[in-house]
Amino acid sequence: MKNSTSLTRIALQKFKKNFWGVFSFGFLTACVLIAIFAYALAPDNSQNANQMHLSIHSKNPGFSVKMLTIPTAVDEQNPISVFFFGQKNADTEIPVSKYLIKQNAIEITEYTSDGTAGLQKYYALSLFPEATAVKEIPNKYISQKKFLLGTDKYGRDLLSRMLIGIRISLAIGFVAVFISLIIGITMGATAGYFGGKIDAAIMWLINVTWSIPTLLLVIAITLALGKGFWQVFIAVGLTMWVEVARVVRGQVMGVKQMQYVTAARALGYNDFRIITKHILPNSMAPVIIISAANFAGAILIESGLSFLGIGAQPPMPSWGGIIKDHYSYIILGKPYLALIPGLAIMSLVTAFMLIGNALRDAMDVRNS
């Protein structure tokens, strides 16, 4: 146990010396915190950041406009539900270019992006419950709204969509890797420990699954289970276990020949205890490294599925879905609408790959 602890300490010290590993770990920690506090950080905290304003669609980063909010009563929400899933918002938001105070109403001119005169509309004082006089409406119900990353083609706040979309990518990665580890470790450990016909049967299944292109298998599973968020979890997880199983099998076949495993058998321990307590703990280093790569792969697969329209379904924000909605804007003069989510995906995937490389170097006993 002392030796195990010292090896862990040595690996941790080596990891700390790897600049890109530590930098990536810090970046991913920040991403996880952003995912947890996404709705608290997002300017648009409505569910799925889905407040549409078609008159201000596809605006450049930093765009600012006056916004009139006409409240609509909704059932009170649990604060915890608002924190994790956003606010059920039925309020009507109208971008305005100017407004005038009338006797019992406010007259607004709707914003237009082409510079022409917008429609003029009147809204009675009775629509604004917190205003006791018309002159109070501008202070309480008209605000200057700024879109730091601009708006998408439906006039939604792109920054809010990006912040909430990080949840999809990280959640897919976590769940897919978790599913792949459970299946892969179970199958690989069983095949490597027992050998014989059991090993042959599991290896046949592994080779068949391995021979099918990953994206095609994911698409087939997704189509069989239906489109949606949870279906993507299962589909991605069920395609990533093969590599884990192969590595675990190889590790177990080597470790089971060690003297401490022979001693455990001599003491009468059952196979399950020998595998879980003695073999697997000494076989997990390569699995941890593969998991980092699988995490990156899961994010790419989810983005690809959302781009094809069979991943997370609208209005749920997904980085792949945002690219799908705006890839044509690359040649229409607003490439940032597709480049921003693309760079986000690239950054997240690169961080996981760098962490995988750092873990590989840290756990390499030959360099100790």
Automatic annotation (TrEMBL):
<dbReference type="InterPro" id="IPR025966">
    <property type="entry name" value="OppC_N"/>
</dbReference>
<feature type="transmembrane region" description="Helical">
    <location>
        <begin position="229"/>
        <end position="248"/>
    </location>
</feature>
<dbReference type="InterPro" id="IPR000515">
    <property type="entry name" value="MetI-like"/>
</dbReference>
<feature type="transmembrane region" description="Helical">
    <location>
        <begin position="164"/>
        <end position="189"/>
    </location>
</feature>
<feature type="transmembrane region" description="Helical">
    <location>
        <begin position="287"/>
        <end position="310"/>
    </location>
</feature>
<keyword id="KW-0472">Membrane</keyword>
<feature type="transmembrane region" description="Helical">
    <location>
        <begin position="336"/>
        <end position="359"/>
    </location>
</feature>
<keyword id="KW-1133">Transmembrane helix</keyword>
<feature type="transmembrane region" description="Helical">
    <location>
        <begin position="201"/>
        <end position="223"/>
    </location>
</feature>
<dbReference type="Pfam" id="PF00528">
    <property type="entry name" value="BPD_transp_1"/>
</dbReference>
<keyword id="KW-0812">Transmembrane</keyword>
<keyword id="KW-0813">Transport</keyword>
<feature type="transmembrane region" description="Helical">
    <location>
        <begin position="20"/>
        <end position="42"/>
    </location>
</feature>
<keyword id="KW-1003">Cell membrane</keyword>
<feature type="domain" description="ABC transmembrane type-1">
    <location>
        <begin position="166"/>
        <end position="356"/>
    </location>
</feature>
<dbReference type="InterPro" id="IPR050366">
    <property type="entry name" value="BP-dependent_transpt_permease"/>
</dbReference>
<comment type="similarity">
    <text>Belongs to the binding-protein-dependent transport system permease family.</text>
</comment>
<dbReference type="Pfam" id="PF12911">
    <property type="entry name" value="OppC_N"/>
</dbReference>
<dbReference type="InterPro" id="IPR035906">
    <property type="entry name" value="MetI-like_sf"/>
</dbReference>
<protein>
    <submittedName>
        <fullName>ABC transporter permease</fullName>
    </submittedName>
</protein>
